[in-house]
Amino acid sequence: MIAVGAGTAGRKSRRAAGRRPKPMQVQFRTIVSPHQLNSRWGRRIYWLVLVSVVLLFTLAFVFPLYWMVTGAMKTPDEIAEMPPTPVPQDPTLDNFAEAWDLFDLGTLLVNTAYYAFGAWLFSMVVDVSAAYALSKLRPMFGNVILGAMLATLMIPPMVILIPLYVTIVDLGLLNNPWGLWFPAAANGFNIFLLKRFFDSIPRELIEAAQIDGAGPVRTLWSVVLPVSRPILGVVSIFTIVTAFKDFVLPLLVMTDSEKMPISVGLSQTAGAVTQNQVMGGLVIAGIPMIIVFFVFQRHIMAGLTAGSIKG
Amino acid sequence: MRRSTGLLLVTALGLSATACGSGESPQPAASGGAANVSITVACQPAKTAPNDRKAWDEDVAAFMKAHPGVTVKSTDQQPCFDPKTFGPKLAGGQMETVFVVPMTNYDDVIAQGQALDITQYTGSVKNWNDLRADHRELLTKDGKVYGVPNVHYSVGLVYNRALFTKAGLDPNTPPKTWAEVREAAKKIAGLGAGYVGYGEYSGGNTGGWHFTQALYGRGGSVLTDDGKKAAFNSPEGKAVLQTLHDMRWVDNSMGSKLLVGWESLMMAMGSGKVGMMLGAPDVVTDVVTKFKGNVDDYGITGFPEAKASLSGGEAYMINPKATPEQAKAGMEWIDFRFNTVGKGRFDFARGKAIGNPVGVPDNAVYGDSPTGKALQEERVKNASLPVENYQTYVDAAAIVPPKAEPPHAQELYAILDVPMSGVLSRKDASVDELLANAETKANAMLAAKG
Amino acid sequence: MRILRRNLTAYGFLCVALFCFTVFAWYPMVREFVLSFQRTDLINPPEWVGLDNFKAAVADPAFGEAWLNTLEFTALALLCGYAVPFVVALVLNELRHARAYLRFVVYLPVMLPPIVAVLLFRWFYDPGPGLFNQILDFLHLPPLAWLDSSSTALISLVIVSTWMNMGSATLIYLAALQNIPPELYEAAELDGAGIFKRIRHVTIPQTRLILLLMLMLQIVATMQVFIEPYMLTGGGPENATVSVVYLMYQFAFSQMNYGQAGALGMMLMLALLVFAAFQLRTTREDQA
Question: What InterPro entries is this protein classified in (chain C) (predicted)?
């Protein structure tokens, strides 16, 4: 479903030796034919496009982050300078420390991690068992329930924000992590992905376990889960990333400044501190997810296309 | 078969529902005798203002020592009255026992039953009768009292004395007319890139609020006397917008950035690059304590050509769900921290020691009552600033008649944000058209509200 | 008996999920309906007010502007957030080098919490020392007002939104493109089709389903725009960036009128449902 090893194309081409311009490695056929690509002009245009795309992408997606990090290393005077200095004249890490104190980033990060981890644990338990029940135990009205769960995907979350919030207030879950964890677990997409994967597990595997006398819990734990690692990974990462990035619901639910996650905390204090301190706060807030991306890049990119229909 | 499954479904749901029910945190029981009572109080200074925060924490400790059995927990949400979270907090049982409400919101809060009737507790505030009568009146409905006035001010012109000097202006003779304001603003903006002569809001309801301040100053009104029709589409209203438009686009003395929300202009003022803004003396205090402005740099004078002045302020109120013990303890806290000469916020000696701008006449809540005079004496005695810097404001404030906010202030301010952002963001903006449109919208809103 | 036991176990596994969905997904939809006919401030008992909330919502000074802005935002976001990623994916798919790097950086902003992206761009948009005007100045171009003019504010919001969201769409298209059987291109080439013809007759038909799906997701997502106006413009200048959801938020949390917010939410839900039904029909006809 996803292109594996797309990144290896370049590496392979380097291996081709010879004085002649080495032919462009074609791993899969695309719009431009290999023949055109390897013609004299084809090559020139190709390299031109490649260089401009790389430059453009770097400018569009990496440079803003560079500006954020260097902005955080400038003094209040330097950051307001016109024209700006491309490199901080006297780089300082003080702003990070100041931002850490002013935004109370320690508390915010701990809160965020706690909410994200809780959302992950709770969603996994709830959604995996629900998907398992719908896929393997096949109860009556199972399809109706699945349909109703999937139907929630059609209703965008912002549309029911107010009644959801009112419900949370009624249940007394303001400033309570469960006010975030319960709604997080009601995720039709997770259940859909998990159920679809469970459906593909061969019947014989389950039946063999049942013959050995395993109950449904044992079957789930020692047969289904071990073979479902890839999808569990994907669902886990997306649940954690979503919880970390979430803004609007926590803005309403976590009003106590001691309990805010980082997104809400930043938005509340950003107006009252200097620009370089804001940047310091943003850098620190951005780092955890960037690290997650570095580590789990493959899973994230795989998960992105896991739910999409085969084109 | 089918029926039993349905039944199971119901049971399962019921089970999980009860499981959740037990997860609800129980309301703190107000038992254990009158001796042990726990209250939460709003408005602890933020961590961004460490000195003030420390002073607050000391006060909390001193109060708890003086009132054994009372536990005080502070919250530091900023701003400490946030309309976004006010209703939800109250409904969700998260509201502090003691909370602050700005004058703009008195009517709504009282009408919606969101504040406790504290008539029987007013005795806890020892100087109750010295608090301004006209302000207490705003907090009284049908003979019942709903709040303790905490801050009272009228609007003036806050200016940066250091920038005046730098631009070759005399900081001791601040502008008295709008023509002089324009001149001064031009000179300050001429200091270089990034300098703003005159700062003004244009969004987040602050634009409409400052429009109202300027309109009142020129003698205009937002609504007709019966409050049924808009009255701001007037020569005074046009003059306000035209002056701003000309300062922004002809003189280029207002910078090019739109300021949305209270903090934006305060932040700019604190950075020391804004020459003047409309504001009450509390602006000076806030700029210094919360936005790192330099204490000596700020002055305030009377509103230019003032015919009336929008009065503003805030009051402390008590959570309607508070128990009598909590209400009493809350009132004692209000008395201790906010209404005792030489203690809490009126401990000017401490204020001076931690670098607050003592000497700013930032609170007229006691007017010229005996308590008010005692306060002024303390303030002058501990002044960290030349009090003469504020004399022009004090003199003006004594003469200019105060004028209250219009009803439905927040809705009107939202509508008035539009013409304010219009003249400040478009060179070709038509003042007449903007005001006429706003008038239509305001009249429709007023008609809908009845 | 065995069937009963199987069902019992199954519902045992399902019960917590059913609870979560019932209380936090299905019930709020019903609640929205109820809410929209009530006056409630969450403190006093709600009272039935008939259609008053709908009337008040429609009569609000910003109601018309909010819908127009939301539609305009959606249209602009389709241009930027829908067309651009597809073109980018087409180009990326042709490249044989630096693929891993390009895919990595295009997805990088998606990983940032939206609040970080939004606050970062707030600084970039600063008319004075902000990055964008400084770049314009460097290129000897006149500065723009960005967020501070009613003519550029909305497009400025679209830029932020595209920057932080386009990564996922790009990668999804890229995956779809890689699934196109190469024989189709070869056949088209033999028929003498040029590059653009190949895109039109092979690429687009082959990715049609995913294109339609993404179109729907994109529209539903952009119709809900909130965080950008909330953080960047406060709906201004001159109401140019008030979106429907932003207005809904204002009704609820600035005017404390949850019923009126619910009424507006109902209208948005209806609009989206009508759109979804329409979309579904065209997709069906398409497949038939």
Answer: ABC_transporter_permease, MetI-like, MetI-like_sf
Tens-digit pLDDT profile for residues C155-214: 999 999 999 999 988 998 998 888 888 888 888 888 888 888 888 888 888 888 888 888
- From-to residues of CATH 1.10.3720.10 in chain A: 99-306
* Cβ-based contacts of A242 with chain C (< 8 Å): none
What DSSP character marks residue B161? H
Q: Kindly list the structural domains of chain C, giving each domain's residue range(s) and its CATH number in brackets, ordered by start.
A: 68-240 (1.10.3720.10)
Q: Cβ B203–C127 below 8 Å, yes or no?
A: no
Residue ranges of domains in chain B, CATH in brackets: 37-154+312-381 (3.40.190.10), 156-311+399-449 (3.40.190.10)
User: What are residue C47's DSSP bridge partners?
Assistant: C39
CA distance C231 to C156: 13
Strands B37-41 and B70-74: parallel
What residues of chain C lie within 8 A of the CB of B255, using their CB? 127-128
Rounded to whole angstroms, the Cα distance separating B369 from C61 reads 44
Domain A99-306 architecture: Orthogonal Bundle (1.10)
Nearest to B78 among A175, A176, A272 (CB): A272
**Could you tell me the sign of the dihedral formed by the alpha carbons of A129, A131, A137, A143, in that order?**
positive
Q: What long-range pairs does A27-32 form, CB within 8 A, spacing at least 24?
A: A27/C96, A28/A3, A28/C178, A28/C182, A29/C182, A29/C183, A29/C185, A29/C186, A30/C93, A30/C94, A30/C177, A30/C182, A30/C185, A31/C90, A31/C93, A31/C94, A31/C185, A31/C195, A31/C198, A31/C199, A31/C202, A31/C203, A32/C94, A32/C195
pLDDT digits (tens, 9 = 90+) for A20-61: 556 655 566 777 877 777 788 888 888 999 999 999 999 999
Q: Note whether A165 contacts B88, CB cutoff 8 Å.
A: yes
The predicted-structure confidence for C117-158, as pLDDT tens digits, reads as follows: 999 999 999 888 889 999 998 999 888 889 988 889 999 999
Where would I find the H helices in C112-243?
114-124, 131-138, 153-178, 182-190, 195-198, 204-206, 208-222, 227-228
DSSP-assigned beta bridge partners for residue B73: B40
Half-sphere exposure of B96 (CA within 13 A, CB side): 29
